[in-house]
Amino acid sequence: MRMFMSVPAQAVAVIVLVVAATGHSSSMALAQAVVGQATVVNVVQAPTASLEKMRDEYRRPKTITFPKDNPYTAAKASLGKKLYFDTRLSAANVQSCASCHSPGFGFGDGLPKGVGNEMKALGRRSPTIINAAYGQIFMWDGRAETLEEQALGPIQADVEMNMPLDKLLKRLNGIPEYKPLFEAAFPGKAIAADSIAKAIATYERTIVSGIAPFDAWIEGNEKAISEDAKRGFTVFNTKAQCSACHSGWNFTDDSFHDIGLPSDDIGRGKFLKGVIKAQHAFKTPGLREISARGPYMHDGSVATIEDVIEHYDHGGISRESRSDAIVPLKLTKQEKADLVAFLKTLDSDVDPTVVPNLPR
Ligand code: HEC
Ligand code: HEC
Q1: Is the pTM value of this prediction over 0.85?
Q2: What is the distance in A from the centroid of ligand 1 to the CA of 154?
Q3: Distance, CA 353 to ligand 2 centroid (Å)?
Q4: Which of 160, 187, 203, 229 could form a disulfide with 81 if both were Cys (CB 3.0 to 4.6 A apart)?
Q5: Distance between CA atoms of residues 280 and 300, nearest Å
């Protein structure tokens, strides 16, 4: 079982997360880099009873959770950001985490499939790392349990950054300005692989989607989103049953489903051979900042949000593994348009992430 420490995190207009400890230590420093910009909106109307209920289900959390064995520090997040953007973490000095999880593409890469070492296409699309702090399990097939565990994977993978850890430690030790940064983040410790993983994971946890018009509406501002979008929200939660899987403020159940895409990839099924419903099942992506992240799905096979809706309306391939919640929906043209309008209210005003100066 994992233990957590919670720290309040409120996105504010200047893209700064105010992080203060509850319980353990008295206060923590500022963490930078939230994806979006806060839209300051006044509450203009008292909520109805049903809106009150929705608020409970979709309201943003006030905290980012950091694990007990890797608590937040500003020094760690700052070091992690540099490592995240540093191409010297790849053998050929050409790729960083940000090559495939770029702020310019909603922390994905805008491609149907990731492109790795020597321009080789990877088997799956690069997912966003936005709101990874709230994730329970990682990768399309759930093969990583924590961000710390995940971080060293792409560095070493020959198809991605192709960098053996001993070579990486040697290279980082040869960059003098990294030394004091590691010392500040991990006092008294030589530069080590687990420190790299912890620093990168800490930075990733600070990448949280900005406050979107949808959030303002949930907080009671009836004018924050259009009437189309409001109808779309109802369709999302009722007739189209999207919320069966895209649930909660980040619109994911952190679970795995086959939604009937034609890909040969069996996803989660590789680890759960006897489980029929795990075949062709992939992790439900969150839907925040969705416009910036196409093309969609684990294989990048669906180009636009409109095409996503068409897929669900049709229901895709009917096979034993397909989720029971995926059936032909028979949506009207209006309902489809309303769903699209609703999904777009989950985009925040994305403010450019500042690329850090890197140690020499
Ligand atoms: C060459 C492109 C590429 C590079 C470089 C890369 N990634 Fe990824 N990343 C991917 C792809 C593709 C996946 C999905 C793979 C899968 O699920 O099978 C992924 C998955 C992830 C996930 C899981 C997200 C989720 O919600 O499940 C995280 C977190 C992540 N990468 C972080 C990183 C970090 C940190 C680095 C740098 C150390 C990095 N990646 C480097 C392409 C890349
Ligand atoms: C049975 C669970 C389930 C239901 C119901 C469902 N989804 Fe999904 N959704 C998923 C999964 C799982 C994926 C990823 C599938 C894959 O890549 O193979 C996904 C992917 C998506 C994506 C692409 C996100 C990305 O980053 O690639 C969007 C957009 C989306 N769904 C919207 C919707 C909408 C709108 C509805 C209702 C019409 C809906 N979903 C219904 C589980 C579901």
Answers
A1: yes
A2: 6
A3: 27
A4: 203
A5: 15
